[in-house]
């Protein structure tokens, strides 16, 4: 099997059990925010290795439970509704 996936296959690969739509992946490609791709003639293809690298780059550390209680502005200003 080829290492190159078409847009629909790449979208399923990225989404796992909750696949993203092929149109979302195409939008990300046009906006320059999606994974690297290969143009083969008129066809767009994605390497599994590029998809894996892009997924790894999207990994974010979870925020602490304390910081999720406030918007960033509230946290910065020290505003706390529970203290009232």
TrEMBL record:
Residues 4-58 form the Helix-turn-helix domain. SUPFAM superfamilies: Putative DNA-binding domain. Transmembrane segments: none annotated. Residues 60-84 are annotated as: Disordered. It holds the Pfam family HTH_17. This is Helix-turn-helix domain-containing protein. It comes from Dokdonella ginsengisoli. The lineage of its organism: Bacteria, Pseudomonadati, Pseudomonadota, Gammaproteobacteria, Lysobacterales.
């Amino acid at each position: 099997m080829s290492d190159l996936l078409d847009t629909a296959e790449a979208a399923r690969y990225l989404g796992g059990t909750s696949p993203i739509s092929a149109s979302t992946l195409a939008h990300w490609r046009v906006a320059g925010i999606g994974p690297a791709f290969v143009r083969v003639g008129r066809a767009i293809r994605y390497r599994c290795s590029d998809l894996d690298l892009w997924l790894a780059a999207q990994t974010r550390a979870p925020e602490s439970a304390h910081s999720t209680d406030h918007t960033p502005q509230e946290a910065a200003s020290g505003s706390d509704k529970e203290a009232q």
